[in-house]
Write the structure tokens for this entry.
Amino acid sequence: MASGSTSSVLHCGRCSHKYICFLKSVAVMEFKVGKAVLQLTCGDITEIEADAIVNAANSSLMGGGGVDGAIHRAGGPKILEECKRIRETEWPDGLPTGKAVITSGRNLKAKHVIHAVGPVWHGGFQGEAELLKQVYRNSLKLAVARGLKVVAFPSISTGAYGYPIEAASIIAINTTKAFLENEDSLERVIHVLFSERDFRIYVGTASSIF
Ligand code: ADP
């Protein structure tokens, strides 16, 4: 079991300044959770080197817009073939919201893609928060079951699915932190934010949690 102790470090990935820096769009913030690191970074998840990146998929697993489209474009058509096989063999009616499945990463720098379905925002009274929590937890559980060490998430549900990012960031960070406090096989969980605005929101949330 990981110890629950946490401490925070703030630095720029490029210039090692002890504050957030957008030099060449590289901004990194890290928090220690037990033996693992919870990292926030700004960038394109398709360029992240990790054991797995998580895809904000839809339940069809047949690709889509946003980060889903970007991952399939960068990873190549074999990922879609693997998704089709998963649909045929495991989830003929589609992957339910909150669940996660895994394929290889093919042409990506990441070795695997964990495809997870986030909730569509309907105003917050249809179990969206619990479903979003399950997305993060089930993705991390799958990574642990496969012996993976480094996992990167986009900000699930906060694009086309309309989940307010301030509320989603609290769930993303709290769920990751709680998971790492109870599971010591993961080394690093990275939350990759696609814009400076989103990154700053996650930084604000993390600063109030840690
Ligand atoms: P959802 O349908 O779950 O809302 P989206 O793909 O529409 O999924 O958006 C989820 C988040 O992913 C948004 O914050 C969006 O800005 C972000 N995003 C889109 N493309 C990328 C990318 N290449 N890398 C990282 N994040 C991305």
In short: The CA atoms of residues 11 and 60 lie 39 Å apart. Residues 45-186+196-209 form a domain with the Leucine Aminopeptidase, subunit E; domain 1 fold (CATH 3.40.220.10).
